User: Fold these one by one.
Assistant:
Number 1:
Amino acid sequence: KVIFINKENIMEDKLLSLAQIKERLKDRRMNTIAKSLGLKYETIAQFSKANANPRYKTLLLISNYLEDNK
């Protein structure tokens, strides 16, 4: 769980861990997810590898997508 605080509001992001994302991607079509998020297939495919090191924004996008599309 990540919390952002600024003068106007408080935003709370609930992120899946890399292990959770990897598990949830097992039965998904990564091309479909990539197109839906405007990302390259390779960006999504990196999560199935042990050495994934995504940017925070990418992690947040994929995490939110997987949470919204269970």
Note: The longest helix spans residues 56-68.
Number 2:
Amino acid sequence: VVTVKVNYKLTESATDKIIVSGKFSRIASYSTNFSPYGNQANQQEIQNTLAIMSAEEIRNRLILFIEHKKK
């Protein structure tokens, strides 16, 4: 099992005021086998996938924040 914990914040550069922040985690599992190389490759693939999923989640949350702020 691989867990990624994400904390993010968007700050205003001039004042360092936090505009929006949040945290979440993503969990995934992968199959193991008798090959150490195969296990490491599977783990790295899952870590890459979780990193992409986390980036997409942050993007989606920022889009929702911006859209909500426009109303």
Note: The chain has one helix and two strands.
Number 3:
Amino acid sequence: FRRVLFRSLNFYVNAVNELMKSESANPTIGLLICKDKDQTEVQWAFQGIKTPMGVARSEERRVGKECRSR
């Protein structure tokens, strides 16, 4: 989890809502996918932010040869 990416995500979600979203559409949701995250750091980064965003941890997985040929 890198806070600078979180701030960028907040900026882009708000920009999409202001510039691209129609009045009838639901608010844009930002999702930041990270290799590692510290829960306390994520909570502090989210404090005071009203933009709907989430942070998820993801593991890199390699696809086996049998899956690639499909």
Note: Helices lie at 3-19, 39-46, 65-68.
